[in-house]
Write a structure and sequence with these properties.
Number of domains: 1
Oligomer: single chain
Structural class: mainly beta
CATH topology: Metal Binding Protein, Guanine Nucleotide Exchange Factor, Chain A
Distance between the termini: 34 Å
Helix content: under 10%
Number of helices: 2
Shape: globular
Strand content: 25-35%
Radius of gyration: 16 Å
Number of strands: 10
Largest sheet: 7 strands, mixed
CATH architecture: Beta Complex
Order of helices and strands: HEEEHEEEEEEE
Length: 147
């Protein structure tokens, strides 16, 4: 394989829910990996924050278990999608940004070579959790919905 052919090879990332019935592959670029401390993410994850990364809908392929995906509209126009068997949060999407999902990075099985870059809604963080890194902290999401 030539060097140029190797550079154009697309990496496929694989992931699944906790019970393994929903499996997916992703073959696109990832957006900025972030921690979200908003109240809704804390409730949906059952912990101090969610760790999410924007992905392109068109490059996500559900390999198995698509019929097990269930959605809950947690706020107007925002749906959180989870496995109806084991409850694993998989991703969320907004009606006003149909080409992008926010993947719950904990469902990914393929190793990644990047780290979270910032904290969203830091002012809303759980009172029992302290942020111990030097990443930027924002009280809102600092970039547009297109990311």
């Amino acid at each position: 394989m030539s060097a140029s052919a190797d550079q154009t090879k697309v990496k496929i990332y694989r992931g699944a829910c906790l019970c393994g019935r929903i499996c997916y592959e992703y073959s696109g670029r990832f957006g900025t990996l972030t921690y979200c401390h908003c109240r809704l993410c804390r409730k949906a994850q059952g912990t101090a924050f969610a760790t999410n990364v924007p992905i392109e809908v068109a490059k996500l392929k559900i390999i198995s278990g698509e019929e097990l995906l269930k959605a809950f509209e947690s706020s107007p126009g925002k749906k959180r999608v989870f496995c109806s068997v084991c409850g694993s949060p998989m991703f969320s999407h907004r009606d006003d940004n149909p080409d992008v999902l926010r993947l719950r990075i904990g469902t990914l099985d393929t190793p990644i070579d990047f780290k979270p870059m910032m904290h969203f809604f830091a002012a809303s963080k759980a009172e029992w959790y302290d942020i111990h890194d030097d990443l930027p902290q924002f009280d809102e999401r600092p970039y547009s919905k297109k990311h």
